[in-house]
Design goal:
By secondary structure, the protein is an alpha+beta fold. It has 2 domains: 3-116, Probable inorganic polyphosphate/atp-NAD kinase, domain 1 (Rossmann fold, 3-Layer(aba) Sandwich); 125-295, Tumour Suppressor Smad4 (Sandwich). It has 9 helices and 16 strands. The protein has helices spanning 11-14, 20-28, 43-53, 65-78, 95-99, 106-115, 144-152, 160-174, 232-242; strands at 3-7, 34-37, 58-63, 84-89, 118-128, 133-136, 139-143, 179-185, 188-194, 196-200, 222-227, 253-258, 260-265, 271-273, 276-279, 287-300. The strands form 3 sheets. It has a 6-stranded antiparallel sheet, with helices on one face. The chain starts with a strand and ends with a strand.
């Protein structure tokens, strides 16, 4: 089996590089792997596409959810359906790995690469009115959920789940976004004010928030969570409940399961996919189409 590892040394606020020697040593015990380091944003997508074209059986994302996201987009756009994805989760959130039951230790993840089973999982495809598109493997967020990602970009001294928690609290304190949205959820049409619209193929985001707790990676459905405008104290209350996925019972929260969602918003919308920014407000994105892509990815789990 030919294995290509694409490692992002900047994952987990540049701490991932400390795992390079360990990864190389452990993979040698299973016959070795070719390891390449990313050099810039988007590089993992290029490397993954090239690895698939070169005939690698397994392409491994060694990094966080952003690295997985880039590698997935490289594999899917490369069109090499036989190339499988592996994950060594050494990032801040590692939510994709968590959702699929991949061990969150380097040792356990590498053992799983060489001894795990293949699973077909769904992806989501997001496209804006300008024709830009990207695939996501775990989650999507519009509104305040995306502003949290923007806040994490400026946090340097806190890591992992605490980084996301701090970013959420800062967002609640300083960025109160009320958007008017018009959405077609398959055949259901709604118009309302909202603070955020989050979607998930997997159940967890931000290293510990279960905004879409019932999302399943292989059911051809995208779970969504729409939150109506509420006070800041109530937002903190729902935030705490989301740590266990219990926010779903709130009268201010609406959960849905759909295959195609078309969103029109009355203002330039901040949007993230898998914790990576797809659009900042300056990009003037006001329409988004999100579509489930069933069984699009082969993953070793």
């Amino acid at each position: 089996m030919r294995v290509k590892i694409i490692m992002n040394p900047w994952s987990d606020k540049q701490r991932a590089i400390q795992r390079k020697a360990q990864i190389e040593t452990l993979t040698q015990q299973y016959g070795g792997a070719d390891l390449t380091m990313t050099e810039r944003p988007g590089h993992a997508t290029e490397l993954a596409r090239q690895a698939a074209d070169d005939g690698y059986d397994l392409v491994v994302a060694a990094g966080g959810d952003g690295t997985v996201h880039e590698v997935v987009n490289g594999l899917v756009r490369g069109g090499q359906s036989n190339t499988k994805l592996g994950v060594i989760p050494i990032g801040s959130g590692n939510d994709f790995a968590f959702g699929l039951g991949i061990p969150l230790t380097v040792e356990g993840a590498i053992e799983r690469l060489y001894g795990g089973e293949e699973r077909l999982v769904d992806l989501g495809r997001v496209e804006d009115e300008h024709g830009r598109f990207r695939y996501f493997d775990n989650n999507f967020g519009l509104g305040m959920d995306a502003m949290v990602v923007v806040r994490t970009e400026s946090i340097t001294r806190v890591y992992g789940f605490l980084m996301y928690l701090l970013a959420v609290l800062q967002t609640i304190a300083f960025y109160y976004l009320r958007m008017q949205i018009h959405v077609r959820f398959d055949d259901e049409i709604i118009s309302q004010e909202t603070l955020l619209l989050a979607m998930g193929i997997g159940p967890r985001g931000g290293g510990g928030f279960f905004l879409t707790p019932d999302a399943v990676q292989d059911d051809d459905l995208i779970q969504s969570c729409t939150v109506s405008p509420i006070s800041r104290p109530h937002m903190v209350y729902l935030l705490i409940k989301s740590l266990k996925g219990r926010h779903v019972t709130s009268k201010h929260v609406t959960m849905r399961q759909n295959r195609r969602i078309v969103i029109d918003v009355n203002m330039p919308a901040p949007i993230h996919v898998d914790g990576e920014m797809f659009a900042y407000p300056k990009d003037d994105v006001r329409q988004i189409t999100v579509t489930s892509v069933p069984g699009a990815l082969r993953v070793i789990v």
